[in-house]
Design goal:
Blueprint lengths: L2 E7 L7 H15 L2 E7 L26 H12 L2 E7 L7 H10 L17 E7 L4 H6 L2 H14 L6 E7 L8 H14 L1
Parallel strand pairs: 1-2, 1-3, 3-4, 4-5
Protein name: NAD(P)H oxidoreductase
Organism: Streptomyces albidochromogenes
Pfam families: Flavodoxin_2
Length: about 190
Amino acid sequence: MSRHALLVVAHPRSDSLTAQLAEQARVRLLADGFGVDVLDLHAEGFDPRTEPADEPDWADREKEYSPEVRAHMRRVEAADTIVVVFPLWWFGLPAVLKGWIDRVWNHGFAYGRSVPRLRGKRMLWLTLVSYEERQFVELGWDEVVGRLLRAGISEFCGIEDARVHFVYDSLKVGAGALKEADAALDAFGK
């Protein structure tokens, strides 16, 4: 049985360091024997706004969401491994990624069931941070952001094997970021 990864990219520029890290991750995943579905949220024109069709219905976990959201849900379900590559903006997810989580990782799909549909998947959050590691850690942002991503999203949705890897000093690190992506994927692969 082949392994399948969903590689989610959240950056508006295709020439960004985020895009370069995502490409590095794609190449590594392919080399590690994964089939890779690249979901570039900006390139695909994903709309992060939640309209009534995709608003959670707490009384109906079987709600049928919009066709766009159901297509994204199928992509998430098809993956054994989910790798999300994004810049940390205002100590959180870029709007397009937050909207993707809000609309796609919805009640009845990603949470709200006694046996989560996403249980058994693995997840790596690979995020670029402009701070140097020392300062980011001293301020406690590594704990805050790491907990939000790992516990607040992944574990809440049944993904127990979730990791967060920060690529620090992203405005200056340049090609060193590609080594960071490799190190994160090496550690994740073990």
